[in-house]
Amino acid sequence: MMKKKRETKILTIVLMTLLTLLCIAAAAAGMGYQKLNDSVQLIQPIAKEEIETMENEYIKEETKKKLKENWMIAIFGIDSRDASALASANSDVILLASINSKSGAIKLVSVYRDTCLKTSDFRYRKANEAYARGGPAAAVQMLNENLDLEIDDYLAVNWSAAASAINLLGGTDIELSKKELRYLNAYITETVKSTKIPSTQLKNPGKNHLDGVQTVAYCRLRNLDNDFERTKRQREILKQLFKKVQSSDWATINNLTQTVFPQTASSIDTSDIITLGRNIFSYHFSDMAGFPFSHKESIVDRASYVFPDTLEENVSKLHMFLHGDTYIPSENVKQISDAIELKSGKKKIEKKEEKETTGETIIGTVVAEETTGKEESVAEEFEHGEEEIEESLSSGPASDSQAQQKKEPIGPGYEISQSND
Questions:
Q1: Strand 123-126 to 116-120 pairing
Q2: N or C: which end of the chain has fewer CB within 10 A?
């Protein structure tokens, strides 16, 4: 079974995203207009006007009206410490947040980054290449066209700010198993390297207080057990951080905005934030899902893809998840769905061609797009340290003797502590 690299950093981005949204809401609840507006100016307004005026010509007016009942935000997680990368970097995580301002219910949908979608005219590639090739406007346009949506706003966040933000909130409290502990320490080492924030490894299983780096590392654990257990870990972290932001004092909120906002790009403006802040204490996470709901994984042109099975059926399920209503996808989505089926090799369309020299009729197949096997997605250029961790843990956690031989420092002034069984 192929490795599921697409889910490597989803929870880190979810945490960063939710912290950002909650910081925005809390700031709106506690600041005067001028102070709030000054804080909002720290957010980069990349492609703001283009996205605010963007419409989906393929969906019916009744669908548009239904979509407007909730505030739909497209959220992109950027794997970079460079704030300038928010303009066109690879989006490691793509989320849809549907917020009901009346009930406070928030639904989150994670669009798997390796999902094969129509990323531009006549081009069917991984979903995460759209942001890399055309920034937030191209990425939002891709989501609208492939999923029959009309997204209101976008939010792009730099995941490296997560550790600092969690530190400002006072960290988290987690019950660790022996197995989690041994895997976690390997991730702490790598997370320190990537964030440049010092931390320490943990010594004992059981109840532990985690700092920002340790919490981020905990959320990145994979190949440890199964998706059910991983989801339980993720929900516990989300629950704790949600409560911490809601109960934070003014000084903490101010520090959070100064830390998070400069590493954020968005089309959200001050009036949106004021509306969000009015209901800060009513917000709650009602449901989370992954898209596509049903899918298959295969390698095409030397790249691993997640193929919706089918896009048409998954778009129907998406609208049911978001609004609870039966939905028939647009003709445009049906055409895209057919093209993706062709690319995956599941569906073939026979075409008769006349052979010029002999007049003989031959049977060929029509493919969704011409591929040479040499061209790879822009997104393929952005693989990072996760693979190194996977390789080091693929045969099981390293033994204590191996760790002692390596003696790798994990931060200024810190030494590796050996985990105890």
A1: antiparallel
A2: N
